[in-house]
Amino acid sequence: MTGVQTCALPISGLQFRLHQQLALTPQLQQAIRLLQLSQLELEAELRQIAESNPLLEFAEDAEPDPDDEGEFAEANYTAPTAAAEPAVDSDPSDATEWSDSGSSEQPIDFSSSGSSSSSSGNSSRDDDGLEPQNAAPETLQEHLMWQLNLSSFDAREKAIATVLIDALNSDGYLTDSLDAMLAALPPRLDATLDDVDAVRRRLQGFDPTGVASLDLRDCLRAQLEQFDPATPQRELALSIVNDELDLLARNDIARLARRLRASEDETAAAALLIRSLDPRPGAALDTTPVEYIAPDVYARKLNGYWQVSLNPDSQPKLGLNQHYCSLIAQARGNDASWMRGQLQEARWLLKSLESRAETLIKVADAIVRRQSAFLDYGPEAMHPLVLREVAEEVGMHESTISRVTTRKYIHTPRGTFELKHFFSSGVSTEDGGSASATAIQAMLRKLVDAEDPRKPLSDQSLAEELNGKGIQVARRTVAKYREALRIPSSNERQRAG
Predict the structure, then answer these.
(1) DSSP H or E segment with residue 376
(2) Fewest CB atoms less than 10 Å from the CB: which of 242, 431, 445, 475?
(3) How big is the CA angle at 370 (ends 368 and 372), to the nearest 5 degrees?
(4) How far apart, in whole angstroms, are the C-alpha atoms of residue 171 and residue 163?
(5) Could you tell me where the DSSP H helices lie in 53-129?
(6) Residues 419, 115, 349, CA angle at the centre, nearest 5°?
């Protein structure tokens, strides 16, 4: 798929110079493009290609049709065996419908991404055929406006409430101050700051309780006030929310009990009541689609060794349409030439997909072998790793490794990670080795979690602790890693404690 072109370039007179350049064939360009695509992008790309090439189809767990295989063999065309699965669905329920057309295969459903040739996979209605499944979900603003229209608000209060509702973020909080809300109101309303706040407090009692709050403390307070006054530990919980929310965040029950002059059992019960509240009341009605990560490969430890395997559910089930392939032998003229061209392109695509899968498993295996300590012992055992090391091991260019590890995910017993997660720069150690940045960050987190809240460790102290463990790291490097971990400075941690 690659070629080296040699050109003779005139320099002056009869002098010539030979020049070589690497030419990327369309097939190689396609393979490179597929390699860098994520799982979702790959599926979308393949479906677009399959729609324009009748010799390609998605085969969802289909069984090969013996008759089509025979016709295809007579035509002297052979489909790739590893990358392409037979794409004929031999569902006996549809045999009668398709027998008249001379083919036993079902129509291909390109609109469904996760189902086979089931008729329900492309349907927008439930089993009863009445309710559409793709109806737009109700937004937080729509839900609150519905309640507002059923409330006892007068026209002036509704106008204020409408402005407040429009200013809510996806969590249900006001994004601007009350002064900004007042400035956004029409002058004809002649509203005051107290008027805006009064309407806001009434909105807090809407469903979900706590919307239109100014901050977390205000949100929790509004939800607690909705409880029956006789609720056990309600008043104690209100005191914690109003005055001691920072101590609650650190789960310092003993200190909370002393400050509130209550027993530890009562304080623990009040803390449990607060934790039952919803800090993001608007999130339940958030219409933002949730994207789930499906791993491309799995890492499992079998018989004491880490092994890597492709996720079969993430691999595109694309193959040759046996029916159309069988028609090539019967085609004549331009039709035959066009179909043979489509067949060749389909074979190139399937070969590229096979190469993509082989490259992915090869790179993932090399990464897992080098980072087996991380899988066994955790982040503190992460080794330094750069693209060049993996590229040399698998015999590929660094740019190829970069493409393979971008937006490709591996599932391990310690979680699901992007393959890029396992690459980290190194810091020298006293014994002449090196420690990865990920391992150092894990050590920093451990040191900060174990420190005395009243005497938090400074960046210099953290650097000295790491130097005591044999890791030579400067104070400014510690500060950089601490900020990356979103750990406040020692002064901020001391004030919070």
Answers:
(1) helix 372-377
(2) 431
(3) 60
(4) 17
(5) 66-74, 95-99
(6) 55
Residue 461 makes CB contacts below 8 A (sequence gap 6+) with: 490
Structure tokens at 249: 């965040």
Taking the chain, what is the end-to-end CA distance rounded to the nearest angstrom? 64
Task: Name the burial class of residue 30, with classes exposed (0-12), middle (13-18) and buried (19+) by CB atoms within 10 angstroms of its CB.
Answer: buried
Q: Are 311 and 278 in contact (CB under 8 A)?
A: no
3-state helix, strand, coil in the chain (%, to 5): 50, 10, 35
* Domains delineated in the chain: 140-285 (1.10.10.1330), 426-496 (1.10.10.60)
Cis ω for the linkage preceding 316 (within 30 of 0): no
Give me the average pLDDT of each 10-residue run along the chain (497 residues).
52 58 69 86 89 83 47 38 39 40 39 39 46 65 93 93 93 91 90 94 94 94 93 93 88 89 92 93 78 88 92 86 85 87 90 92 94 90 90 91 91 92 79 78 89 87 87 87 88 74
What is d(CA 169, CA 282) in angstroms, rounded to the nearest whole number? 8
Q: So what's the pLDDT on residue 64?
A: 52
User: What Å distances lie between residue 106 and 83, 123, 325, 399, CA to CA?
Assistant: 21, 16, 16, 42
**For 152-192, how does the pLDDT look when each residue is reduced to its tens digit (9 = 90+)?**
999 999 999 999 999 999 899 998 889 999 998 998 999 99
98 close to 67: Cβ distance less than 8 angstroms:
no
Torsion of CA 244, 249, 250, 256, to 10 degrees: 30
Choose among 312, 313, 319, 315: nearest CA to 50.
Answer: 319
Count of CB atoms situated within 10 Å of the CB of 377: 11
Cα–Cα distance between 349 and 81 in angstroms, integer? 13
CA distance linking residue 109 with residue 87, whole number of Å: 12
C-alpha distances in Å from residue 160, one per residue of 139, 201, 238: 19, 12, 28
> Backbone dihedral region of 196: left (phi > 0), alpha (psi from -120 to 50 degrees) or beta?
alpha
Question: pTM for the whole thing?
Answer: 0.55
- How far is CA 354 from each of CA 310, 405, 408, rounded to the nearest angstrom? 12, 17, 16
Is 473 in contact with 467 (CB distance < 8 Å)?
yes
Q: Is the CB of residue 274 less than 8 Å from the CB of residue 260?
A: no
Q: Which helix (H) or strand (E) holds 2?
A: strand 2-10
Which amino acid would we find at residue 114? G
DSSP code of residue 384: P
Q: Are strands 434-436 and 426-428 parallel, antiparallel or unpaired?
A: antiparallel
- The one-character DSSP state at 36 is H
